[in-house]
Amino acid sequence: MRLDEKKIKKALKEGRLIPWEKIFSEYPKERQEKIKEGARYIMARMELRKLRRKLKLSQTALAKKMKVKREYISRLESGEQNVTLESLYRIAEATGKKFELRFV
Length: 104
Prior knowledge:
Layout lengths: L2 H12 L5 H6 L3 H26 L4 H8 L3 H9 L6 H11 L9
């Protein structure tokens, strides 16, 4: 467990922080759904950035492998550009990974 996680758990136990679940549950259902929808896109961007960094690729290097401009990668990672299936397949190809789309 990281030091930050220990501090957070301690603060929660002492009542200095409110668990996110408590706050989230107080939102109307419609707002909860919008938050969950936005979270999916944030998670996709985070996974892309995590993969790129794990492979020690700069945005420029990944862009060259994908034959796109570096700005495109930046926009994908920042959320300014929607990620398409085509982009995901191209990212997988450029990084030597396999992209799978599954419904579970």
